[in-house]
Amino acid sequence: MSEQTPETPQTYYERVGGHETFAKLVREFYRGVAGDPPLREMYPEADLAPAEQRFLMFLEQYWGGPKTYSEQRGHPRLRMRHGPFVVTPKQRDRWMFHMSNAIDSIDLDPMDEELMRSYMTNAANFMINSPDLD
Ligand code: HEM
User: Using a 6 Å cutoff on CB, does residue 41 contact ligand 1?
Assistant: First the structure.
């Protein structure tokens, strides 16, 4: 176990296992997206790997890890970046279904799991920019 002092509080990112944990989370999430045609069709690139990498960098930064996302992509402005995509409540549900499975796969402690799950739920709701189309 690494030594902790009040001056160097451990980040969430470090506490849950750092890069390996976040890499697994996004890998599992995109595995779900890849197998879900209505959701997969929203992603413009034939290869999902670059999108997976952007999401990984964003989440690592958000939870206290490396700031690579902002170095490469600038301010996240996530709602604006989702503007070109029609995010409906149904697509949110699909997104959240795969995210929930991905969260299950990383075996967090109950408190950390609840933090992650509620963050993702709120963020996904925030990204909705259209009513259901059917
Ligand atoms: C609610 C359902 C959501 C849908 C359908 C959705 C869909 C998409 C799509 C189609 C892209 C473009 C893929 C690409 O990067 O090429 C994207 C990008 C991205 N999404 Fe989402 N998203 C959703 C929610 C979220 C949430 C909740 C977060 C954060 C917690 C998030 C974070 C990101 C990030 C970081 C990018 C890359 C932004 C960049 O260009 O730097 N998304 N999303």
Answer: no
The residue whose two tokens read 């997206």 is 33
Mutate to test the pocket of ligand 1, among 81, 82, 100 (most ligand atoms within 8 A of CB): 82
Cα angle 30-133-42, degrees, rounded to a multiple of 5 = 25
Q: Which atom of ligand 1 is nearest to the CA of 125?
A: 1
Do the Cβ atoms of 29 and 95 come closer than 8 Å? no
Opening angle at CA 109, ends 106 and 114, nearest 5: 90
Element (H, E) at 58: helix 49-62
For 101-119, the pLDDT digits (tens) are: 999 999 999 999 999 999 9
Which residue carries 């259209």 as its tokens? 130
